[in-house]
Amino acid sequence: MPLLIIGVVAVLGIVGVGAFFILRSDDDDKPDRTVVMPTVTHLNPSSGSTYSPLPTPTTSSGGGSGDPASVLSRTIRTAKGHTFTQAGVRTESCVTRANAKLLTALRRHPCVGLMHSAVYANPTKTIITSVSIMTLGSPSAAITVKGVTDQSGWPKLLTPSDASGLPQPRPNPAYWTRTWSQGRNVIYAQSYWKSGGPTGGRTGSVFATAGELGVEVTNTLLFSD
Question: What's residue 6's pLDDT?
Fold first, then answer.
């Protein structure tokens, strides 16, 4: 929800950009970020959120094949020691998952293959995060498409599957979208409260959760390429 330089973007409506060799959860504190007042993207979370069957449980520990489908494992344990549990998976065409702004970018820089996504609950099952991985034709194309997050270009939000047992949030939940690029991949982490309540700011739990899970997935791709 590119090279050895990894770009980071944090967005609820639109927020800033940072760059690091190895991603860290505190990378958004760099002074060169640009901050714009956030806005809420409206979406009916119950529409179009269909899922594949959940895969056999596995655990991510920072390694892997580099294949997006395998990186989005049944559970992900982050460097902070938190275990996130999968609540649905989805594999779909990039253009059908993209919102209008992202779709415009993909017309100039088409993705390769499908977009792989999974929905995760944090350990307390209070914050939901949709993680999506999209592969572009080149690292430079991935950087360009990642940058479109500044213009609210991202995948349509996913919510937990019915089989997960987690309740759906109220319609049109507010959420943070944060993005990273690694090689030819763009990684999106879109987090929101299970209740659908206000997300809070850049120092809040929702923003931090998106960063923690997105960094873990991006670093797994980095070290497994």
Answer: 43
